[in-house]
Amino acid sequence: MNSRSYKSRLRELVRRREFGIFIIIVIVMVLVGLRNPIFFTGDNWKDMLMYASILAFISIGQMMTIVTGGIDLSVGSVVALSGMSVGIIMRDNPALPPVVLILLGTVFGLGCGIINGLLIGKGKVHPLITTLATMSIYRGLVVVVSRSRWVVYGDITKGFKLIARGNILGINNLMFAALIIAVVSYYFLNHTRKGREIYAYGDHQEAAKFVGINSTRINILVYALSGMLAGFGGVLWVSRVHTAQANTALGYEMQTIASCVIGGVSIFGGVGSVFGVLLGTLLFGIILNSLELIGIVDFWKLSVQGFIILVAVIFDAVLSHRVAEQMRKQRRVFDAE
Amino acid sequence: MEHLLTLERITKIFTGTLALSDVDFDLRQGEIHALVGENGAGKSTLIKIITGIYQPDGGQMTLEGRRVVFPDARASYDHGIAAIYQEASLFEDLSIAENIYMGHQEIRPVTRNIRWGALYRKAGEFIKSLEVNLNPRALVKSLSIAEKQLVEIIKALSADAKILIMDEPTASLTKEEIDYLFRIARKLREEGTGIIFISHRLEEVFDIADRVTVIRDGKKVGTVPKDKLKVEELVRMMVGKDLKTLYPKEEVEIGEPVLRIENLSRHGEFDKVSFELKKGEILGMAGLVGAGRTEVARTIFGVENPEGGRIFLEGKQVRIENPRQAMELGIAYLSESRGEYGLVLQLDITQNITIPILKRFSRFGWINRTDERDTAKRFYDLLDIRATGIQQKVGSLSGGNQQKVSLAKWLAANAKILILDEPTKGIDIATKAAVHKLMSDLAGEGKAILMISSEIPEIIGMSDRIIVMNEGRLVSEITRREATQEIVLTAALGEKGK
Ligand SMILES: Nc1ncnc2c1ncn2[C@@H]1O[C@H](COP(=O)(O)OP(=O)(O)OP(=O)(O)O)[C@@H](O)[C@H]1O
Ligand SMILES: [Mg+2]
Fold first, then answer.
1. Which of A53, A259, B111, B340 has the maximum number of C-beta atoms within 10 A of its C-beta?
2. Do the beta carbons of residue B211 and residue B223 sit within 8 Å?
């Protein structure tokens, strides 16, 4: 490799969004680490990464809906509903192996997602309205199925706790799950026809019709996947925090959307990458964790989340303008006379 | 000759509109069959029924002797039908290669993953075989409008189809690319492909078609072999009456310069462009696609800002930083693409026409709806917009009628300086004559018009003076008297022409 192409590759890398996120992650880490040394302890990191792992794969599901030009506001409620249902089943049948519970939770989530997908794909109801409605409905169902009796620490079986705490190949289960889901999603979105159709559909819905992309199927697919991942996440969530309540994962949709937006997923559809979302989640997880460590009250945390989304969106607008300008300048160069 | 495709008694109803009524149509192997008719006649609807995007409400389709029903575009593609649609139908954030093969990418047998390497290689080879200079990895959003149109054409050609449908493929292209497209079409005809070709430019129809089918108001008027057809006759079939002249340009007195451009430059787009536009004048701007004409217009209108040079209005230097300032200074700009700075598809015709001039109808922030509607109605009638009424949503109009609405919008603005970028793109022949008449009248009232057009006959027929751009530079100025097709074209081609 000659040094010139090496240099231009380096420049290419620096220009990429992922690199920018990476730099910000480092800066935030240094700042927070200076304020509170606990930040750099292994326990804190493990805590944070376990939190970010669940957030990461649910955000990947969210990303797919956003890439189609839609949104899934119901993910937080699905996490709670799946977590609560599984928690109750476990309380009533402590002998059930954890694998069965994981499967059940995933199927519950899938069911919720398919309902969203049918309403949006077949019923042609706007995604925002649909998932805003099901967000409330699913949240309401949490209370209904629990009959207002939360799942508490004592209800959690030993085996169930191990789901979150155990390791595979020396990696914590939650992180392992996130990694596997990320790899599979990456493969699906970038290397299969269906995956590319998701991008095409989100890019230009009318043109998608012209190449025979079935909008109903695409919608059902992405909302089903998003629901399924949220359902799976619900089981892991309960295993991690050892309780399931009516307000479990309340406001979680905001966090998944924030992770996507920070990770470069365009809210207009058609653009987004799994890698970007992973970095976005990581940055967002670190920021959430930092807020806690610095001692910022919950009430402010919401404002900060909103602020981050705003910054990311504005950053995107500026960035895309600059890229367009650059393209123009490269297009044709006049030889000065 | 063998019948490839036969349509019988096709009917299509949209809420409130009978778009097609009992239309018969047939396509033979190795023929180019032109489909013509006024804006809103139902041409695009017929195309979309053939490709399975719309389902007919009546009638049947036979492909090579067998009844077929296409539930979606994939089904028609699988039966060997490829189409270029009138509206932009590319995925902007995807690469050229991906656009070409979307939906039928080559995949590995077991893992079913896309063979990306093969896809880019195949796309690159195919593009090269067409002697077009495009990078298959480039994102579509980085291309100019004409390049996008080329990609649409390449995409349709790559299908290697038995039936190729082209709905106004030439609308954003200049002579050179059109000739090129026609050469390919003729070659495909030789090989036995059946081609359906839609265009409002009758010289193109006479140039390339074997048979011509005319549709009017959703009904078929007739199918005629080209050899037995005269232009006047075809026009009568389309419009229902005779058309005197397509270019009713009148001599008017030309006054002082109102707009002067001095050494205007934008890096990578155009370089040191200088010209004057006078009161009462129609200044034609010719050039090949990509010569930088649209970019100059956008810069004058403040969509982009110049990186060098000056703009004078009536002798005074002005700075135009955004379109609003341009409008306040009395400049209007009809954009080349309807989507961009053009129309709001969700709003109705009235609202679209009056957006730039709402101030005129409002008092203390309240809009006088009657005045607003009257103005809209006037232009609706003047331009003969075909719709259920001024309250129809612009998104559901035919392509040509959308173009008329965006034209109406800028005409209603009553600006001193009108910059019209491809004003008659996609507009049918009768309305085209009406638009030309209107331009001539506006010039007579003392307006100054800068008209960008890729149609050389239109440039020659309507301009008092012609300036020609080539690769970002102004290369030539031609008076109305000396202008001929050859002179304008040679200037536009620049070095290549010599
Ligand atoms: N999706 C739609 N909903 C409602 N009406 C429609 C729709 N599409 C087309 N129409 C109506 O059907 C009629 C035929 O439209 P079509 O697009 O086929 O015309 P066209 O012959 O292609 O015209 P042009 O030359 O302007 O492209 C028009 O009156 C149009 O308003
Ligand atoms: Mg049409």
1. A259
2. yes
